[in-house]
Design brief:
- There is one protein chain.
- The protein is an alpha/beta fold.
- The protein has seven helices and seven strands; from the N terminus they run H-E-H-E-H-E-E-H-E-H-H-E-H-E.
- Strands 3-2-1-4-5-7-6 form a seven-stranded mixed sheet, with helices on both faces.
- Helix 1 runs parallel beside helix 2.
- The radius of gyration is 16 Å and the shape is globular.
- The relative contact order is 0.17.
- The mean pLDDT is 89.
Length: 217
Amino acid sequence: MKSDNRTDFIINLADIKKSDSILTVGVAHIPEIERIIETKTKSSNCIDFDLKKINHAKRYTKKTNFICGDITNPDKKMFNGFDTIIMLEVLEHIKGDSEVLENIHKMLKNEGKLIITVPNKHPLHIINPLLYTQHYRHYKMDEITTLLKKVGFSIQYKNTVESPKLIFDLYVHLFCKYLLRKSIPFGILTGKNDKTYLNNNNKENKGMDCLVVATKN
């Protein structure tokens, strides 16, 4: 599976069918993935605890159902409700990572699919300011896959993605957000293309992020 950008790569991995119920966890400033998902399925959903972010994201979407809620304590009505859950760069922000993955497992239908990315323990992350201000942890690939297996998932695909440009994009993004008080799409400095998404055989210590596809046992 090949793609030259993150969004298309994730959508290809999701392999969305019209009858699928999809949930994304955490909404981006510009909800690119949700905008595509809602064109491919009748049930596009997104959960986030930040109502301000949700209201902003609604301006870019047409059919996505936004849920103001906490993935650490989801409504039990959501259990067994989704064919695919996509959680990108969220788990590192949550103190109880195993408990959240247990919730995700319960929210998926039998043989449902989880697509997850987390920061890899790459040496360059030592200059990532979020590591010290917002992230509880980063992961080696074997750490995140072991955690997923312990919760009850089977690993279907794993790879490391995102080149070191991610760090420089992050600094530009934070500078504009907190100093200029201006919101810009992440990756504005170097654009969408990232050659790591063209490669299915990245060495696990090379990419900035770990990407895993797992299915519910």
